[in-house]
Amino acid sequence: MTPEQFSKESTSLCETGQLFGQRGWCRATSGNFSLRVDNTFCLITQSGRDKSQLVSSDLMLCDLEGNALDSRLKPSAETLLHTQLYQLDESINAVLHTHSVNATLLSRHNESGLIFRGFEMQKALAGIESHDDEVTLSIFGNNQDIRALTNTIVDAWHRDAITAPGFLIRGHGLYAWGQDIAEARRHIEGLEFLLECKWQETLAGLS
Q1: pLDDT 10s digits, 29-54
Q2: Angle CA(22)–CA(28)–CA(32) in degrees, nearest 5?
Q3: What is the predicted pLDDT for the residue at 77?
Q4: What is the CATH number of the domain that holds 118?
């Protein structure tokens, strides 16, 4: 099995990476993206690749334990976060991670989470039907020990402490997911919009 066998999935990941990179959400090779290709493997970005110029050769296959199918290739350092989300929920088929300025700053200046209410853009998130619904985006402390960080996410998931299709890692960035790449991309775009609004309100002294 090789990444070349999944040309449709590779193309969608590369197009998403290029778009998000061009928007400044994945500067300096930051961010990582993945797609589940079956019940055993996912396609994921290799470590240190420029997302604004992402091409299929920048992708690789990993099993759902985070092990590279081709041991010569180095997956993203945060591969375990992706693969654990796939294990936690079989309906998750795409995981996207961005490093925008807004996500980074807001995650540093809020404790456990951000609450959104009254924004029409909230309806970009699966399960949200009204601007009057309350959306809580959880924030978790950063940890260079990815297994420990992953365990924190798993624990929060089992406690139902993650209620949005995404979360923030403090001083780091945004993770979001979906049933397919289109939904995951919509969730990233919707959440990044909400984060930008929240940051602008903060600067204006409105929140």
Answers
A1: 899 999 999 999 999 999 889 999 99
A2: 75
A3: 85
A4: 3.40.225.10
Q: Round to whole Å and give the CA distance between 175 and 149.
A: 13
Per DSSP, 46 falls in state B
Tokens of 164: 């949005």
Dist. CA 5–CA 76, nearest whole Å: 21
Alpha-helix residue ranges (DSSP H) falling in the chain: 7-22, 79-88, 101-108, 146-158, 181-203
The closest alpha carbon to 92, from 77, 78, 81, 103, belongs to 81
Amino acid letter at 105?
L
Tokens of 147: 């297994």
* Structure confidence at residue 175 as a pLDDT band (50, 70, 90): very high
Range of the domain at 12: 3-203
Q: Where are the beta strands (DSSP E) in the chain?
A: 32-36, 41-45, 59-63, 94-98, 113-116, 135-140, 166-169, 173-178
SS3 (DSSP) at 187: helix
Q: Rounded CA gap, 196 and 46, in Å? A: 28
Are residues 64 and 41 in contact, defined by beta-carbon separation less than 8 angstroms?
yes
The model carries a pTM of 0.95
Distance between CA 98 and CA 80 in Å, rounded? Answer: 16
Q: Report the number of distinct structural domains present in the chain.
A: 1
Specify the pairing of strand 135-140 against strand 166-169. parallel
